[in-house]
Structures are given as C-alpha cells and as structure tokens.
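Researcher: I'd like a candidate sequence for this fold, 562 residues long. If you have to choose between options at a position, lean toward the conservative one.
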C-alpha cells in the first residue's frame, strides 16, 4: 500500500511567477512548484514535495553505499575546534567555516566535511589490521559559509552531503576502496537519471594524491571542464588551469612569461620584479611544455630536482626536495598572512601547451585553490586567470578540447596518510608492529543533486523528474466536479493499494486549467486525468516528458501504472 497524497491536504503553494531573486532554472522551478523555500542566503526549508525528492535521493545513495559494504553512521555537525586545528584546516578554511563559542568560551565549528572526526573515530574503534578495510558513511547536514550562495539549493550554506571514508592498510587496499566508490557513484548517478562525466580534479583542501569529480553538464553549473572528443580525457579546468593568484603590491603584477629560452633565475627575477635572491612563493615553472618546478609541489608529483638544471641556486634553494621534507604545511597550504604557508594547488603537470609560465602569490589571505573567477572572488581582486580555451590541444591525444559548464555532484579522493599522520592512526599489523592507515574520502551533494536534476530535466512547462526520484509515480487530476473527483479518488485508492505512489489533485474550486498547469510544473512522470469521459469510467494518461496521451479505463490505467 503506497501513499495516496491528496493535494487538498498537501501544504503546497505554487507560484505563477519566478521569484525575483532567482537566477537559475532550478531555483525558479523548485520555488514555484513549492518544493523549497528560502529562509536566508543559502539556507533552505524543504517543503513536503521537496522532502520526498530529497529522501528518494538519499535512499538511492544509501542502497548503493550499503551494497559496497559501507556502514552508515551519524556524526555531529557541531564539532570541537581542536581536531581541525591539528589538521590546520581551522586556519586553511578561513571564512568558509562557521565558528561559534559555547557558554564557557570554548570554540566550535559547524562541520564542512568530516575527515578529522572520522579519523579519530576509527582510531578509537579499530585496533588491528584484521578489522580493516572499513568504509563508513553518513548523510548529514554540512555547513560552509560560501562567499556567493546563489543558484538555489545548488550552493547552500547549509546543505545535505553524503560523505564516506575508507580505511585501509595498503595502497592497493585504498585503490580498491576507491574503485568500489567510483562504481557505486556510477550506479547512483545512473539511477538518479543524471547525465554526468567523470573528470580529473584537484584535491584542493582535502590533500592527498588522486581525485576525480562527477560533473553534471548544465549551463547553471559553476564548474568548467574540458572534454576530449577523440579520447577519454576529461578534466575540471581547475585541474588543467594555471591559476594566477595575486602578487603582493610591492612586487607588482606577474604576467605569463612566454620565452623560447630556458628561464634562468635572472630572467625569472627580472620578470617578477624582485631581486634574484628573493624568496619566491607559489612559483611554477614550465619549460618546453613540461612543468619542471613549483614553489610548492602541487597535487601531482613533479620533478623538483630538474629545476637545478635550469635555474640558479637562489630558486633551487627554495624548492629542492629537502625543503619540503617534513614540511606538510608548505606542501598543502595556501598563501596566508605569514606568506607561504597555505598554497594548496599549483597545476596538473599534464598540461601541454605553452613554454614557460610563472605565477607568483605573496598576498595575504589569498589562495590558489578552487579559484573560479566570479564564483570564489571578484575578478578585480586578482591578476588574471589563465584558463584552458576551447580548441586547446588535448594533453593525451592532441585533439581540440571541448569546454563545458557543469555542476559538481560528487568528488572522490585518495587521501593517503595525511590525516592518519596527523592523528597517529595506526593499527596493529600482521607482524605485531603498528601500521599506518591510508584513507579515502568521497562526497555526494545530496541536496545539490536535486538542483542538478531540476536543471537537466526541466522543460518549458516545469520540472520533470525521473521515476525513481519523483515525489510520486502518478499525478491524478480531478478535472471537473463531483463525478470527476469521485473517479479520481477511486482510481487513486486502487493505484495506492497496488503499490503506486499517488498524488491526487482533488482540490475543490480550482479550475482544470490551473490543475493541469500545476501538474506540469510539479513534474510527476505520469499524469492521469479524470475529465470529460469520467461518466464512462474513462481516464486520460499523459506522459509528462513526451506529452503522449492515451485513453484508458480504470483497470487499464492500473495495469499500465503498476
Ligand atoms: P564546489 O567546488 O562546488 O564548491 P567543493 O569541491 O567545495 O564544491 P567538496 O568539498 O568536494 O565540494 O564536497 C563534496 C560534494 O558536496 C561536492 O561534490 C558537491 O556535490 C557538494 N557540495 C559542496 N559544497 C556544496 C554547497 N555549498 N551546497 C551544496 N552542495 C555542496
Ligand atoms: Mg569543487
Ligand atoms: Mg567549495
Ligand atoms: Mg570538490
């Protein structure tokens, strides 16, 4: 017996007009169709219809996470500051963190993501290699004080995320946990009916080595990705772009240095307008299309040693491998008030074009990570952002790349031992010695997926949900008076009894025209109308997506819909 929801008793108020502040399709439609309501910037209420869609997405996610053996838990969102201080993210996250104090003055945060806390829980709960691998997940409310919370539920300051974490003792084990998640994500997004691509990404604030994103192409998306029409190469431009970050006022602007010659410390220094002995920060050097050095290593391995072949000692001094030994803070930071403490991301060494590029960043409180112009900062604040352009050669096969906008719906990371090192997460190994654990972390934007689905599947009439996600299987419309209402309720009861989820528009005093418009707007995949031929017991079944219609008796309609 599935639920029969009467519209006459449903708290839903549809709107004819787009909300004044809405810029994106999902924002307009989800508000107009009565799924969500905005409380404050980036803070949303899920109304009954919206809650159903959100729950349907959570159910799919939960089923697929359970299927790979991940265990569901629920961690607090209100977290003590100390673990995030230990990982340096209390600092690194900057303004993105919601921070608060309790009555005794102790500091807390509202969790933006939970690597620290999961690491501590596993440290507490797991003692031996025999208890690994372990995969844990939660579907939980996350908090990020986003600079520009717009686009409806696509970018909330409070939002729902499924986050999971894997714990293994070997690199092969981590690769396997990562593979399991990747496959589970493919199943999840296929079931959600989302068109998506898997692209190379940067690990950013998470740290770690490998990471991929699941991107749902849509004009409202806030990410840009490149896609090769000839081979399987696809990457977020964050991962193929040289992000130019601000330079300090005293040093003046730094431009792209295109030189046929191998740069020397002198040419670099001259170009940067600094003495040859200066400590250069966030430096990236490419020679003959190959990155030979970065001021701090990026997410990928780069041959720092090669720098010595090209550059004089002053720079080498800054960037030799030893300089980074044990200096995790340098490797994973970005440029903060103290200078080079926080550079997180430089570039993907696979980027092919160009000769030599240099970026410099000495400005306080700036960072080079996830820098998307207009989203993360005002363009004027920064120098310039060199992006990959449409038609640039694919780093793998040389074919001209395609450029598209997309919504980041999922992100998977091989974290490695970063958090395990921070918190001393060891288990007793096979030979009685402690072994350091290696981790992965994996996120899905559950509430964002609602926005992505709305963006991808809506049409001129309104929302149009895939079956598994829709708030009901069929929207029954009583288009007339008592006779039509009686037939609509009768068929609804029978459908409900047969396990079909029904939304029935039994509202009195609402014209058929308004009911039809609302049904299209709300976007349930099938619309069943009790109208003109109700006296004969004949209904009209309409497919919301294709618009195809057919006349059916009650029995035929039930047979068709079950
Ligand atoms: P973005 O680049 O859009 O800011 P992110 O890379 O910061 O996202 P992650 O830290 O990778 O996000 O978090 C995992 C997932 O959580 C993302 O892939 C996305 O689907 C979702 N997500 C992140 N931030 C938000 C937000 N502000 N509102 C809704 N969903 C979000
Ligand atoms: Mg991102
Ligand atoms: Mg973000
Ligand atoms: Mg991400």
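Model: Candidate sequence:
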């Amino acid at each position: 017996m599935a639920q029969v929801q009467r519209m006459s008793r449903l708290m839903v108020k549809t709107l004819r007009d787009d909300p004044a502040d809405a810029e994106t399709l999902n924002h307009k439609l989800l508000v107009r169709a009565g799924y969500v309501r905005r409380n404050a910037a980036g803070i949303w209420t899920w109304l009954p219809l919206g809650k159903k869609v959100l729950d349907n997405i959570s159910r799919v996610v939960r089923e697929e996470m359970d299927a790979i053996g991940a265990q569901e838990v629920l961690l607090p969102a209100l977290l003590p500051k100390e673990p995030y201080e230990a990982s340096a993210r209390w600092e690194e996250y900057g303004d993105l963190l919601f921070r608060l104090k309790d009555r005794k003055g102790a500091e807390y945060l509202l969790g933006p993501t939970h690597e620290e806390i999961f690491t501590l829980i596993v440290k507490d709960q797991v003692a031996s290699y025999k208890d690994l691998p372990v995969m844990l997940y939660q579907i939980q409310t996350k908090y990020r004080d986003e600079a520009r919370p717009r686009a409806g539920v696509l970018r909330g300051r409070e939002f729902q995320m499924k986050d999971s974490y894997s714990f293994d003792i070997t690199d092969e084990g981590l690769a396997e946990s990562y593979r399991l998640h990747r496959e589970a994500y493919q199943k999840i997004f296929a079931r959600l009916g989302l068109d998506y691509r898997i692209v190379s990404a940067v690990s950013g604030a998470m740290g770690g080595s490998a990471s991929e994103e699941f991107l749902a192409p849509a004009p409202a998306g806030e990410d840009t990705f490149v896609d090769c029409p000839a081979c399987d190469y696809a990457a977020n431009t964050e991962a193929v772009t040289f992000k130019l970050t601000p330079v300090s006022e005293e040093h003046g602007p730094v431009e792209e240095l295109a030189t046929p010659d191998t740069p020397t410390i002198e040419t670099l220094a001259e170009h940067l307008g600094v003495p040859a002995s200066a400590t250069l920060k966030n430096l990236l050097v490419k020679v003959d299309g190959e990155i030979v050095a970065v001021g701090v290593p990026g997410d990928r391995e780069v041959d720092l040693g090669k720098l010595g072949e090209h550059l004089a000692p002053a720079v080498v001094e800054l960037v030799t491998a030893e300089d980074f030994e044990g200096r995790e803070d340098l490797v994973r930071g970005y440029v903060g008030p103290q200078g080079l403490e926080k550079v997180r991301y430089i570039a993907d060494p696979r980027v092919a074009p160009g000769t030599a590029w240099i970026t410099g960043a000495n400005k306080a409180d700036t960072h080079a990570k996830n820098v998307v112009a207009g989203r993360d900062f005002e363009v004027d604040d920064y120098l310039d952002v060199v992006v990959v352009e449409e038609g640039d050669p694919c780093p793998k096969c040389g074919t001209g790349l395609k450029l598209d906008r997309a919504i980041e719906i999922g992100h998977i990371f091989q974290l490695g031992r970063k958090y395990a090192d921070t918190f001393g997460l060891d288990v007793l190994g096979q030979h009685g010695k402690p072994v350091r654990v290696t981790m992965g972390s994996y996120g899905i934007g559950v509430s964002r997926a609602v926005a992505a689905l709305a963006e991808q599947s809506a049409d001129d009439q309104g929302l149009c949900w895939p079956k598994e996600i829709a708030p009901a299987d069929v929207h029954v419309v009583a288009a007339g008076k008592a006779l039509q209402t009686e037939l609509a309720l009768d068929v609804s009861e029978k459908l409900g009894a047969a396990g079909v989820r029904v939304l029935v528009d039994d509202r009195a005093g609402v014209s058929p025209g308004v009911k039809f418009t609302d049904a299209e707007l709300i976007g349930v995949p099938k619309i069943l109308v009790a109208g003109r031929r109700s006296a004969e017991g004949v209904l009209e079944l309409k497919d919301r997506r294709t618009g195809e219609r057919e006349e059916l008796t009650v029995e035929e309609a039930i047979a068709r819909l079950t």
